[in-house]
């Protein structure tokens, strides 16, 4: 006996480009999905006919397709992952006049043998690492706590996250700084696009950056703010994607030159360094000046200015104010000196300078520069530098797992409350967990940090979901519940159903009903299902009945 199910989809093609629909579930089945692909010049791209194909994922099935308007039908047995259809739907000599913004509607009938439904294999049981931006959801108060301002454009950020991955931002957001007090970091030496791309890449967003020039702009940002893991990643990208077309900017970046200047002062008098040659740039000179009481409009701060003469050059630099008592107040700059000039950097409040009776040193470490494939988004764990590995720990019995309180506070309002200044956890840096195993906590945290946790069973995923529910990590819950729906089968039905009814997940309950309807013969003799709580079994049967009423199959 077989069952048939119907579904329809519409694909729109534009400007000589092929079109395809998203993969969609085949109604009444578990794990079976399909999509329509339209090729304006055939599958090879050289045909004089338009072709239309149906792709199947999740199993093998017989498909009858009807392309409305064009009155073309076909019938094929399509295996998992394959696509078949009509090679000569109609002549394409009217392109682009007649097929620009044209729609192709396909109604498909799927014939599935009942005995084959339980045998659809679980193909998608690996948990893919989740990027940071998906863990931070817009509706919560911990969405951001600072912003970067470029001219009139504002970009929201999280100071704890940037402090974890960048020692420069860590210094910028120190307790006594102006930036920390007002929550604003002003950037004048990078474009909005560069800052947005650089930050998006930090947060794991797909930036769609494809050319070497954009990548080099991002590298200069990372160089200024000392985000070393990203520099390593992007320099590897430059090596892998170097061609004749982009050779010049990559070579210019590779042959940059380094130099350093230090000045020391013991009074509040202004001081200027010796003038030095810019390495690799004949005729160009550079030096620095330090103003312990600030330049005219910044009397409350220690200022430094970097000077270039003799021509244009681009400089990335870190300026450090230090002595035996002050451990490295650090600021960064990246500036294009088009025809020489000066660039001012405010270092710190000058109160302690006024009171100081000891020597201070300002050092400027400078990097000078003469004037494809997508970047794969970074995961959180790839950006942590060794010196910023952790500032808290989770204790499970005798085991401990190192964590970053700033990161967990960003993604979980529960952890955010735990790490408030007055709490015991904040003061000791230790969160004790007694209701989850070490394995569950490790899996859940690794997944948040973007670590590849590999293939997981439904039981392991449900344990992770219980952890996320307790600590209110909503984005991780959505990801893993989607995984449960995609991988629901006879062998893992019981733990998933138990989770769906214990936590009142209506969408997952409905999916359990559909899977039970397709696999009832096997499930009613499955010991795990039989031993479920009677309330859950009753709920599954009701969901099955609702599913049956919504899609009554034709029987042949």
Automatic annotation (TrEMBL):
Residues 144-211, 390-457 form the BTB domain. Coiled coil: none annotated. SMART domains: BTB. InterPro entries: BTB/POZ_dom, SKP1/BTB/POZ_sf. PANTHER family: SPECKLE-TYPE POZ PROTEIN. This is BTB domain-containing protein.
